[in-house]
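Interim report, section 4.2 (structural modelling).
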Amino acid sequence: MLHYGVLVSIAKNSYDEPPFTHYLGGAVVGYLSADFLSGFIHMIIDNLDPEKVPLWLKTICNDFHAHHKKPLGAVYDSFWYQNREMYLVGDAFLGVSVALGLMGYDLSALTFAVTGALTSVTNWTHACAHGRLKGNKIITLLQRCGLLLDKESHHIHHTKLDRNFCGLNGSMNFVVNRIFWTSRTVVRWWKKDSSKEINNG
Ligand SMILES: [Zn+2]
Ligand SMILES: [Zn+2]
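Predicted structure of the assembly:
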């Protein structure tokens, strides 16, 4: 009877509680999502016209655009100031994580929590690629392992502004780049088509 109880308990727990590898997978998905989000947001803001957006967004646009002209400014901003634009995004994900946790969806809660927490600091990891904490062995090691954005891959963004927008480690650049290039092709085609219609009309 005791054995039966133990077996039921193991079966129940293995059903209720996902194995450790699932949590590891959730954390990796959260990590990749944070990299994607940082790149996607960067891509949009880089391509907005500060003169055509609401005032609250205008400052953010100007900050992003100014960074292309003076990249080293990112190295000297304070940690809290530096990440200010990403806190709201991070907080939204952390809020969803808390709600999912309360509903018992622990794995999803973990994924959202990792996404939110890491998205909040992607401006800082980006600054590290510009030389913030230069010489710090842990940061250097993480950059060499590809776990944090490295100088070389981010430098490509500063030479060609149409690629490599991601700020955590750049692993999702291939996705964000594809989204950007495809959108740009569609917009150019649309504008060309519209101007033809105006000329013909
Ligand atoms: Zn940029
Ligand atoms: Zn940069």
